[in-house]
């Protein structure tokens, strides 16, 4: 190849937004285009002194073979992989690779694309599909799906779970007295207080208006009641924008063991805690009523 043609090809490679690399069978980087080293934050000189193992997280190094086998080439397929920049930042990449022959020597050519932005967008879309727009906790569809799942798991794993339905007392008066914007702030802060007081394994969602459900997986009634009592105490000491403003909630709480779960639907479970919550409302509010 003439020097003129070589320069043209090099310019074409450097125009690519994808990183392009030539490696030997041991993973040593022999050449790369402009994007190839800029993606990782290295100069080209630095890049050509690296092995592919220098570009992946430490905990994944053991998964990379000493000699790259033929079947590791993806050919027309793309795979996703986590890579590591010079400063240690991890990022998502999409890779397409194949073996080629250059001057009688076997070489591994890799095309790499930074897909971090796409992965973040996908994550955001998933969040939107699962979360309530106002409070950012789980939405009605997701929390109901989790009730179904918990009933199934309980029925076949010989344990119990608890579930509570909470309703903010006199919430209509809050909206009527202070407006819907302040009402929204109350719902957000109420959700935040609960989130801080439940466990990582608990599932918390808004099913509509001022009604919320908490699922306590593999948790008996006494333990879940204690968590609700802690929420009530935390809510009572909360400070609000409006002076002397306080809110309370009424709740229905129940426990389902594995025998009961075999004969229960999610609608029956919700009705059970909803009825208990209604009894708490009609008997004075600011109460947690429960049944086994």
Protein topology:
Layout: H1 3-15, E1 19-23, E2 29-32, H2 34-38, H3 44-47, E3 79-84, E4 90-102, E5 105-114, H4 116-130, H5 140-157, E6 161-168, H6 171-178, H7 180-197, E7 203-208, E8 211-216, H8 221-236, E9 249-256, H9 258-261, H10 266-282, E10 288-291
Parallel strand pairs: 9-10
Antiparallel strand pairs: 1-2, 1-5, 3-4, 4-5, 6-8, 6-9, 7-8
Helix pairs in contact: 6-7, 7-8
SSE pattern, N- to C-terminal: HEEHHEEEHHEHHEEHEHHE
Tally the helices: what do you get?
A: 10
Shape: elongated
| Main sheet makeup | 5 strands, antiparallel
Query: What is the CATH C-level name of the largest domain?
Result: Alpha Beta
Q: Structurally, how many domains make up the residues?
A: 2
Give the structure's gist in a few sentences:
The chain has helices at about 5-15, 35-40, 45, 115-130, 140-155, 170-180, 180-195, 220-235, 260, 265-280; strands at about 20-25, 30, 80-85, 90-100, 105-115, 160-170, 205-210, 210-215, 250-255, 290. With about 290 residues, it is of the alpha+beta class.
In words, what does this structure look like?
- With 292 residues, this protein is an alpha+beta fold.
- The chain has 2 domains: 3-119, Beta-Lactamase (2-Layer Sandwich); 131-291, Reverse transcriptase/Diguanylate cyclase domain (Alpha-Beta Plaits), CATH 3.30.70.270.
- The protein has helices at residues 3-15, 34-38, 44-47, 116-130, 140-157, 171-178, 180-197, 221-236, 258-261, 266-282; strands spanning 19-23, 29-32, 79-84, 90-102, 105-114, 161-168, 203-208, 211-216, 249-256, 288-291.
- Helix 6 (171-178) crosses helix 7 and helix 7 (180-197) packs across helix 8 (221-236).
């Amino acid at each position: 190849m003439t020097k003129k043609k070589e320069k043209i090809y090099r310019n074409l490679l450097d125009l690519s937004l994808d990183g392009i690399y030539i490696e030997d069978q041991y993973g040593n980087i022999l050449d790369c285009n402009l994007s190839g080293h800029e993606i990782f934050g290295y100069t080209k000189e630095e890049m050509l002194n690296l092995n592919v193992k220098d570009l992946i997280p430490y905990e994944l190094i053991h998964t990379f073979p000493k000699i790259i086998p033929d079947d590791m080439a993806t050919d027309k397929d793309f795979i996703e992989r986590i890579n590591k920049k010079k400063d240690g930042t991890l990022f998502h990449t999409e890779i397409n690779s194949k073996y080629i022959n250059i001057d009688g020597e076997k070489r591994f050519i890799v095309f790499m694309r930074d897909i971090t932005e796409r992965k973040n967008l996908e994550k955001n879309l998933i969040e939107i599909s699962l979360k309530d727009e106002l409070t950012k906790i789980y939405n009605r569809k997701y929390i109901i799906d989790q009730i179904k799942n918990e009933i199934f798991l309980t029925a076949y794993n010989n344990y119990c779970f608890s579930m509570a339905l909470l309703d903010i007392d006199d919430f209509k008066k809050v909206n009527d007295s202070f407006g819907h914007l302040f009402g929204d702030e109350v719902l957000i802060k109420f959700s935040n207080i609960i989130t801080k007081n439940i466990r990582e394994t608990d599932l918390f969602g808004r099913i509509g208006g001022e009604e919320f459900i908490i699922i306590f997986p593999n948790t008996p009634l006494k333990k879940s009641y204690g968590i609700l009592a802690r929420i009530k105490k935390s809510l009572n000491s909360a400070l609000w924008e409006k002076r002397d403003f306080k809110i309370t909630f009424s709740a229905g709480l129940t426990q389902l063991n594995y025998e009961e779960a075999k004969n229960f639907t999610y609608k029956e479970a919700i009705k059970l805690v909803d009825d208990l919550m209604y009894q708490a409302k009609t008997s004075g509010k600011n109460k947690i009523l429960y049944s086994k």
